[in-house]
């Protein structure tokens, strides 16, 4: 009798652990790999093939960031709003801390005492040395290619310009629709400020073919890698997706922007990624 009770107890423990592990990953979507199907991307017709990977259903929320980092740097406060005003380095640190908290192997090595000699962005006064553990199961930032593949719908792509639609206003939040009223005409920062434009909840607007929210607009999403400016003489860290304060063309799947790694703004956030 005692033996049967012990077996039952072990079964319950294993079941609870598996449920707990599943709940940790419930906000990740499995993206099936393959070649690019969307003709609007930068990689249509290329020989690039993407392996399977996981990506966040939505942008990292302020609630999630605060639980891991113990502080909320965002200007527009709200648990269900995307975290913003974070640097690329902040995002690397967040990925590692979240991985460690969940018992995963951190994907990045981050040494704040050493200078990355490859960096040519002189405005970056940190230049911390960041490396990767390719086989690690921890959280990471998507590469621009992975981000574009997921935003375009992967193998389920319907060839949209924006993530989930050909209508920018249906797909995401940008300067014209993120405030008190719809703004008409060209981008104007003064008008954007007067209109109280700001971030919106992380799962607002429609999802794309893969069930991913707000990959167009809301906050610009830091990605891993480099974005070359002026040929190869200057390199910055890339972002994708556009944000609430930017123009609609910035929210197109193919658009890529960049900032120096230590920069931060009230429309700069992130989306998590993970190896399969």
CATH class: Alpha Beta
CATH architecture, please? Answer: Alpha-Beta Complex
User: What is the tally of helical segments?
Assistant: 6
**CATH fold call:** paralog of FGE (formylglycine-generating enzyme)
How much of the sequence is in beta strands? 15-25%
By DSSP, the count of extended strands is 13
Supply the CATH superfamily name.
paralog of FGE (formylglycine-generating enzyme)
Order of helices and strands: HEEEEHHEEEHHHEEEEEE
* Percent of residues in helices: 10-25%
Largest β-sheet summary: 5 strands, mixed
- Distance between the amino and carboxyl termini: 41 Å
Low-confidence region ranges: 1-24
Radius of gyration: 20 Å
The number of distinct structural domains comes to 1
**What global shape is seen?**
globular
Structural class: alpha+beta
Instruction: Summarize model confidence as the mean pLDDT.
Output: 90
